[in-house]
């Protein structure tokens, strides 16, 4: 199934300067895995020892995956997965 992943501006240099990419996947985890296969530099930006980094938020069609099934959240053809890095300041 074709899932569109939205890549935020700070991560685009690690993903071929793409704003988005379509991958085939059945879950959010598979979609991110495909992104990392295509652009290996993304893996260290998104994951730490196989776990999604704490400052990386993932939304599926505007819903936070943490309130769904996390990386096991199913995705279907046409879904949009947005990578949103947390921002801190003060």
**Ends distance:** 41 Å
Q: Uncertain runs with pLDDT below 50, 5 residues or more? A: none
Spatial strand sequence of the major β-sheet: 2-1-7-5-6
The succession of helices and strands, N to C, reads: EEHHEEEEE
CATH fold field value: Ubiquitin-like (UB roll)
Q: How many structural domains?
A: 1
- Tell me, briefly, the overall form: globular
Q: Mean pLDDT, rounded to whole units? A: 95
Report on this structure.
By secondary structure, the chain is α+β, with helices and mostly antiparallel strands. The protein contains 2 helices and 7 strands, in the order ββααβββββ. The protein has helices spanning 28-38, 41-46, and strands spanning 2-6, 20-24, 47-48, 51-52, 56-60, 63-64, 80-85. It has a 5-stranded mixed β-sheet, with helices on one face. Strands 3-4 form a two-stranded antiparallel sheet. The longest helix has 11 residues, at 28-38. The radius of gyration is 12 Å and the shape is globular. The relative contact order is 0.27.
Structural features:
90 residues; Ubiquitin-like (UB roll); single chain; alpha+beta; 5-stranded mixed beta sheet; globular
Helix/strand layout:
Elements: E1 2-6, E2 20-24, H1 28-38, H2 41-46, E3 47-48, E4 51-52, E5 56-60, E6 63-64, E7 80-85
Parallel strand pairs: 1-7
Antiparallel strand pairs: 1-2, 3-4, 5-6, 5-7
